[in-house]
Inverse folding.
């Protein structure tokens, strides 16, 4: 298979490229990149990317593909289709499946399934503890052998600090990060941010400090044993302060946030739309501003989706009873381009948080466009406007608070390992 | 003024004009309950369902009496006798009830937003009869009606709300309603029972109850919401009663024509002493009486019987 991408603006932050270039792909690799590459005549696809951005395929370090166990919410097939549509060529899937990905047979199952049916690369994240119970370490070494790239009890915090300490120590053998979901359960028995949302709706509150206390704890433990900690889906101004401060003296800290934490405030929940229910909850305007500032000044390294698809029945209930999560793959790029439109980030900086930074965190050989490297490439247009229609999602999860929103910027083409896995009709 | 809203989900969505219009409408219905034959044909042929997922004496009876005095047919469903105990979701219950074409469904639910969810799914009018700690709009309306009746006005009053504010839908709805008027609203109670940003609602917070009640025109007492974990917010009922129970000494600090209100049910000896609850300043039973008139007015407006 040969693909030629012509006249696009290639932006690859890792290799400091920002230029109008042609890219020729042969089989699964980038064969050549340069100005005015001559067509050979035997190309299977010639893509005219003029006026569009050509970037390394995005890497999502935090998603839920729901398989095995919750195939009614999402499968590896539908999840990776949605990811590909959204511009992701690699996704990390969290361990809270059924059975939990806490042993190598589940890891192998996911990897095998993804290889057979997936539209993009899938990297499982193993559970820190068996059954996500927070009690005993999972067989991290065996899962690492089978292909996990990180460990996390995502959806939960490891409540027992000693168990968490051992996890931080143990992962040093494999040099993979611990991804921390930060939540103090004694303080987080609610459903919405403690602030305007809880005050006006009477819904039980989750204060910011429920997140911040554990962000602090996890950094303290990681630093004590000199291990890498990655704090995922941070949502509060206080978390940003804690991380920014800690980063001054300790280098092995990274963090991510998700588009909904810099697009929506807790006011979005006032109509009781259960699609606004996420964990951590949507925060105040002040927090949203702090998240943007954190993205701008580099405190936040990565943007992840926390793609959390749900079936209709899990959301079509009272707010308290609804499952938490947003189906995020298919809107993440467009929502994040808002940061560029608002002047928070340059396009290069944005792409960096979706490509080289996550690749570096997980030691993945992707996230760049370079001759001889795997052809994981996307073509998107930052200006095309479109209206989100959940009914057209490839994901089984139609749970989005952005249904009906007019967004600017759209992914048009996704190439994974030299294969076109998604192509928008807007791209001739 | 014409009533155009399909539902009454909360005070939050109402304008000052709409609030006053409801109170005015209620006034014309109050007299019906004083007649020997307490029934008018206004809502003949209308079907009204009360769907209560939480226990209630006053609200449910009040709605039922209001509907019956207007000649509507009423059906009562409570959680313990409904398919809720068999695991039916609110959505399915709603769809099934809708198929029987009721005109109004009055819902009480322990979870905030349940009436809003119901209203979004069905064509019948929905009245929020109390949703968790969120709103209890008909209670606030009958409270305003009572204050207005006793004081002749709302503007210029000092209104003190005391107790388990954080869990109180009555407090929220009253604050939302009273904010439309030129009133001084003071909330008092232990800090653990106050949302940390309560002032954002345009009220003052005073933890010292003795100070809070000074020169008050209206004192509104709230019950500890034991069913929402209220008791874990205080060391003991006894200590609570010492610090925030309404006693005769408080009445002396208030205006001499102060009125004492309580949405009920009251816990005698906890948030209010017998002598105050049954004393001359108490309008607790007037509130109950006015509740019927206010609910008659609301049902009348929502069923479009005015046009």
């Amino acid at each position: 298979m040969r693909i030629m991408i012509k006249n696009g603006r290639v932006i690859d932050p890792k290799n400091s490229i920002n230029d109008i270039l042609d890219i020729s792909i042969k089989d699964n690799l980038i064969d050549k990149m340069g100005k005015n590459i001559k067509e050979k005549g035997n190309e299977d696809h010639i893509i005219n990317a003029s006026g569009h951005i050509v970037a390394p395929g995005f890497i999502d370090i935090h998603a839920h593909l729901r398989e095995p166990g919750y195939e009614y919410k999402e499968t590896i097939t539908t999840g990776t289709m949605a990811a590909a549509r959204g511009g992701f060529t690699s996704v990390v899937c969290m361990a809270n499946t059924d059975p939990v990905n806490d042993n190598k047979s589940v890891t192998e199952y996911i990897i095998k399934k993804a290889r057979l049916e997936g539209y993009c690369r899938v990297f499982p994240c193993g559970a820190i503890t068996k059954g996500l119970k927070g009690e005993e370490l999972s067989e991290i070494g065996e899962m690492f052998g089978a292909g996990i790239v990180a460990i996390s009890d995502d959806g939960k915090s490891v409540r027992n600090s000693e168990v968490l300490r051992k996890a931080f120590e143990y992962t040093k053998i494999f040099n993979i990060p611990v991804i921390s979901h930060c939540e103090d359960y004694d303080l987080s028995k609610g459903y919405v941010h403690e602030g305007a949302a809880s005050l006006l709706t009477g819904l039980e509150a989750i204060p910011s400090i429920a997140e911040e206390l554990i962000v602090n704890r996890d950094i303290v433990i990681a630093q004590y044993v000199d291990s890498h900690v990655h704090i995922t889906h941070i949502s509060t101004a206080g978390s940003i302060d804690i991380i920014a401060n800690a980063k001054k003296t300790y280098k092995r800290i990274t963090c991510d946030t998700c588009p909904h934490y810099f697009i929506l405030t807790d006011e979005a929940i006032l109509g009781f739309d259960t699609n606004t229910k996420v964990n951590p909850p949507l925060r105040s305007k002040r927090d949203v501003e702090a998240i943007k500032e954190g993205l701008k000044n580099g405190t936040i390294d990565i943007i992840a989706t926390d793609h959390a698809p749900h079936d209709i029945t899990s959301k079509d209930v009272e707010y308290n009873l609804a499952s938490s999560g947003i189906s995020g793959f298919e809107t993440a790029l467009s929502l994040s381009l808002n940061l560029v439109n608002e002047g928070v980030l340059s396009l290069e900086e944005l792409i960096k948080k979706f490509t080289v930074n996550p690749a570096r965190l997980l030691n993945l050989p992707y996230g760049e466009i370079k001759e001889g490297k795997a052809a994981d490439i996307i073509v998107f247009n930052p200006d095309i406007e479109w209206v989100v229609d959940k009914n057209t999602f490839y994901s089984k999860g139609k749970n989005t608070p952005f249904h009906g929103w007019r967004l600017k910027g759209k992914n048009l083409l996704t190439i994974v390992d030299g294969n076109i896995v998604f192509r928008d009709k807007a791209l001739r | 003024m014409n009533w155009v809203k399909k539902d009454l989900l909360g005070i939050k969505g109402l304008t000052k004009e709409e609030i006053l219009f409801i109170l005015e409408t209620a006034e014309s219905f109050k007299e019906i309950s004083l007649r020997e034959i307490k029934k008018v044909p206004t809502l003949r042929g209308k079907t009204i369902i009360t769907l209560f997922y939480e226990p209630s004496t006053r609200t449910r009876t009040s709605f039922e009496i209001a509907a019956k005095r207007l000649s509507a047919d009423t059906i009562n469903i409570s959680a313990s006798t409904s398919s809720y105990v068999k695991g039916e979701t609110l959505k399915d219950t709603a769809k099934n009830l809708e198929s029987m074409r009721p005109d109004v469904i009055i819902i009480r639910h322990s979870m905030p937003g349940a009436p809003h969810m119901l209203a979004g799914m069905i064509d019948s009018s929905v009245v929020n009869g109390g949703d968790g700690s969120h709103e209890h709009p008909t209670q606030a309306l009958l409270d305003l009606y009572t204050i207005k009746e006793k004081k002749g006005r709302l503007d210029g009053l000092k209104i003190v709300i005391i107790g388990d504010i954080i869990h109180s839908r009555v407090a929220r709805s009253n604050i939302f309603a009273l904010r439309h008027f030129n009133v001084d609203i003071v909330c008092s109670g232990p800090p653990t029972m106050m949302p940390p940003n309560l002032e954002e609602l345009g009220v003052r917070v005073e933890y010292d109850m003795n100070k809070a009640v000074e020169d008050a025109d209206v004192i509104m007492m709230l019950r500890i919401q034991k069913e929402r974990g209220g008791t874990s917010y205080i060391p003991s009922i006894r200590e609570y009663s010492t610090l925030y129970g309404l006693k005769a000494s408080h009445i002396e600090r208030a205006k001499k024509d102060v009125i004492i209100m309580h949405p009920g049910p009251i816990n005698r000896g906890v948030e209010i002493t017998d002598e105050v609850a049954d004393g001359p300043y108490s309008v607790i039973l007037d509130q109950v009486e006015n509740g019927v008139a206010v609910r008659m007015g609301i049902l009348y407006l929502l069923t479009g019987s005015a046009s």
